[in-house]
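User: Fold this; tokens only.

Assistant: Input:
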Amino acid sequence: MNTTTLKVRPTARAEDTRRKIYDAALELFREKGFEQTTMRDIARKAGVALGGAYYYYASKDAIVLAFYQEMQENSHDSIVKEMAAHKHLKERVHCVLTRRLEILEPNRKFCAALFRHAPDKEDPLSPFSKETAPIRQRAIEHLRIAVEGSDARVPADLQPHLPYLLWLYQMGLILFWIYDRSPNQKRTTLLMEKSLGFIVNLLRLSSLPLLRPVRKSVLELLGELSADLSV
């Protein structure tokens, strides 16, 4: 007998329940912190049974991964649209960075806790983990679009690696922003402006024949460091 597996679409009620759990979790992560919040807390706040919460999300990690995914999906169109108005690489990358920080702003408190997971790529919440690979790829894609749509002249050997390098820079900037206690994170804004200018100037210098051996060494090192990541 031939059987066909049909994909069953979630009902409106199921989607509503999932969203209640998701929203309750994010609210608690902001109020209490990620580590201090339990799945029982989330279920209670969402008004569902604990088993129901686990039915939709296997763990708190799964909720955070859903948050990462939603952040990327919801920002894609606006980032691409904003970049389209600029040709200079500095301005295009600036569009990506500022939009990312705007989206993260309401969740700044629990982002600090999540960044403690970053160094261990075996941790599902690390931005370097296999679980976050699709989200990482989407973030790198934004920076690839920024580079390819710009008027920057990028050496051929550096071209495929530059979006990943810019993503690493973005991660460092976000970490600085998380712990920036200046009013409205003005120091982060200043750092972004100064460092982006430096990066663009360095990129121009990298095209010089004299720096080709240095560029080759850097790219070889990058290849070794990223060999075990899907980048």
